[in-house]
Amino acid sequence: MERAPASQEDLGAERGMTDDIFDTSYHEKEGPKPARRYVWRNIVLMSLLHAGALYGLWLGAAPQTPPHAQGFLCFLLSFLGVTAGAHRLWSHRSYKASLPLRVFGSFCPPCSLQNDIYEWARDHRVHHKFSETNADPHNATRGFFFSHIGWLLVRKHPDVLEKGSKLELADLKADKVVMFQRRFYKPSVVVMCFLLPTLVPWCCWGESLCNSFFLPAILRYVLVLNASWLVNSAAHMFGNRPYDRTINPRENRLVTLGALGEGFHNYHHTFPYDYATSEFGWHYNFTTAFIDLMCLLGLASDRKKVSREVVLARKIRTGDGSHKTG
Ligand SMILES: [Zn+2]
Ligand SMILES: [Zn+2]
Description:
single chain; 326 residues; mainly alpha; two-stranded antiparallel ribbon; 2 strands; 1% strand; disordered N terminus
């Protein structure tokens, strides 16, 4: 089925970049597929992390283990760094954030990202621009496993590298917070992702070192990773398409719940510049509530929102009819 042309590009252009708007001119090259090259370092690392998370689950389920409210808080904070920071702010420029909020946002992603903000935002823009093609880093047409975690275990498809290198990314390069975080990404991961979540409960309220390492550090990290990967996998496969039936991304309530509001994915790919990633405001959307709170506190501004009329017109024009249009 032919993909519907993007609408509201004027609103997208208002942000100073349109790299996340689907590019209809790209066509996959004919010929044999490039050889699959495994990245063994990532395979070993991910295997160890997931084995550690399973052990953390076993520890957490033990009756003598106290409830880990701080682990949940750490999950929320680190995940917000991905959803409100790396995704809605830096990848899509869907609102503006003050310096203190950007500094805070750059501290959270090392707890939960696979890459630094610059690389994450570049890959995410390529994902939107060339969605479901060879140039999409986690192309969901290659199956659930590939779009979930497999794409991190193999070398990128040449088209991903080529298209990624052609993005200008001037806004990211001009953002000193982003470039500082990129420069010190590796040590910040060690400190923010593993050391702090382990040392704080161990030193401050006498949690055992083993529990502190495997619950708020390892298990929490793996849960954040998998919840964000579900947006690339499940939300591209399961659910309805009320805004654009010609694209793969879907509205997936389970992903929405687990990923702090990031599962309204058919809406998000249709209107990537909308800061709420949904037409329903705070409904199942913790990230939108957080951004609104930051605006109330004067730490964020200039939220981009698609009008109700435009959403309704788009539903009628290209939706699958699964949402009421009246
Ligand atoms: Zn996005
Ligand atoms: Zn997507």
